[in-house]
Amino acid sequence: CRLQELLSGGSGDSLWYIYLACCNFHPKVRIGHLKCLTRIQLCMVNITENGLSSLLFISLGLERLELRHCSTIKSLKIPCLQRLSYLEVMTCDGLRVIESKAPNLSSFRFAGDLRVQVSLGETVQIKQIYRLCNDAAFYARTELPSSMPNLERLLIHSDTEMVNTQMLPSKFYHLKYLNIALGGGTYDYLSLAL
């Protein structure tokens, strides 16, 4: 990958955006800090957790991280990146764990299995969630009101809802925008907004 040559040659200091698609990326050389890098977008990239961790560790100014169809990643661990505000993880089928220590994360988009363990650290900052998975409405109603009290925008997409969600005392007090896309079955959709 030509990017590895750029990064190892010291030219990476001026990079502000990395977009890689349909390739292998396994950084093996010592890379300096990528001070200007604000966005990383990987689509169908074969990268290990160690390779991704190394890249994130040196990207101190990162604001956006987008991973799509990167199925070799089993665990995504994001260090304390102060400027990271947007995280998107879409259809990374091998993924089992997402763990973020980024304190200013405000937007999280995720398409994948509901069984993926998601830990976003200090979730008070999170204002927007997009979740695409089966039983997304159940997840939104039972998990989000208490774990993300300042949520303003909630977008959920689910092809199946296997259970009828019970009414809970917790509510979305700051919710301003709700978008629900569900396929099949009957469901009390308005219970999400109450």
UniProtKB/TrEMBL annotation:
It comes from Oryza glaberrima (African rice). The lineage of its organism: Eukaryota, Viridiplantae, Streptophyta, Embryophyta, Tracheophyta. This is At1g61320/AtMIF1 LRR domain-containing protein. Signal peptide: none annotated. InterPro entries: At1g61320/At1g61330-like (IPR053772), LRR_At1g61320_AtMIF1 (IPR055357), LRR_dom_sf (IPR032675). PANTHER family: OS02G0105600 PROTEIN, OS05G0571700 PROTEIN. Residues 6-193 form the At1g61320/AtMIF1 LRR domain.
